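REQUEST FORM: STRUCTURE PREDICTION
Request ID: SP-0412
Submitted by: Lab K.M.
Chain count: 1
Length (residues): 369
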Amino acid sequence: MPVQIAAEVKGFDPLQRIDKKLVRRLDLFSQYAMYAAAEAMEHAGLVASDEGDPRFGVYVGTGIGGLQEIVNGSRLFDAHGWKGLSPFFIPRALTNLAAGQIAIRFGAQGPALCVTTACATGNHAIGEAFRAIQYDDADVILAGGCEAAVSPVGLAGFMVMRALSKRNDDAATASRPFDRGRDGFVMGEGAGILVVEALDHARARGAEILAEITGYALNNDAWHDTAPSPGGAGAARCMAAALRNAGVNPEQVDYINAHGTSTEQNDVSETEAVKAVFGEHAKRVAISSTKGVTGHLLGAAGGVEAVATVMALRTGVVPPTANLFEPDAACDLDYVPLVARKLSPRVALSNSFGFGGVNASLVFRRFEG
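STATUS: Completed
RESULT:
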C-alpha cells in the first residue's frame, strides 16, 4: 500500500497486568484499555471491590473497536461457515466490552458507558464522567479511550480518504501538526485512562490529586461527514461553551492541547477557532499538539492527550509540537515548536474533534489544595 507507517505500540505484553485466560477473550483495543485501567488504579491507590461498588463507574470508549477481529471473523466464516467462528468473536469485537471487562475486573457496579464518537471519543468519555460525578451518580469513574485499528484494513480505509501521511521514508517526522509540509496524520494506537473522582471522596481517602476538571462541552458542526465547518465555527462554539461551563475567561487559559492532527483542513480550522474564541490572547496562549510524537490515536486520542494536559499542569512543562519545522502561514499562533517549554500553566484546555462533526473540549486546572 502507499502508506507503510503507523505509530504502533511495540513490545506490549498484556500478561504483565491481565490474566492469561482473560487475554484470550479480549481484542487488542480492550487489552490496551484494561492495561491502562490497571495502571490508573494502581497509581491512584484504588483496589478492586470483591463485593462490587455501586458508586464506582467505567466510561471507556473506542472509535472503531475490534476492527481486525471482524475482518478475521469474516475470513473464517467465508472459509468454514459458522463453525469457523470462535465463541469469543462477538465479545472481542463489541465496542463496549472494553468498559464491560474493566467493570467486571474491578467490581465497578456504578454507571457504565461506551462512547463511540470517532476522534472525540476519549474527551467525551472523560467529560461525561465529570458530569456523572457532578450529578452524584458516582464517586469514582475510570474514563478515557482505547484503539487498536492499526491493521491493513484500518490503514487502507483512512488512506483511500487521503487522510494519512505517505512519508514512508521519514516515519519519525511524518506527523507534522501545523507544519507547511504536513501531508496527513499517522495512525496510532493505545489507551489513555483517567481516574475521575469527586474531590471530597479523593480527599477523604488521602489520594494524590493531579489536577481538577472544571469544565466540559460538546457539540456538532452539522456541516460535513469528515470536513470541519468553515472557519472552525463548531470547534469555536465548543471551546467557548467549555470555558463558560468552567467559569473561566479566555484570558485565564495558559495552555491548549490542540487536536492538531497534521491534516490540512483540521490544523487551519482549529487555528481559526482559537482566534475566534481567544481574540488577542490567542497570540499569547501556548498551544501544542502531541500527535507529532504519538500519531493520531483516533478514539484513544482524547484520553492520552488528557494525560499529557494533566502532566503539563502537574510538572509546569508544556509539551512541544514535534516536527513543526516551518509553520503554515495560516497556522500563525504559538505552537511551541520542537522543544518543550517551562511555563507553569494554571488553566489548560484540551480539544478533540471527530468525523461526523463531533467536538469535545475539556478544561483542566492545576490543583492547589
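NOTES: The chain has two domains: 14-204, 211-366.
Reviewed by: T.R.
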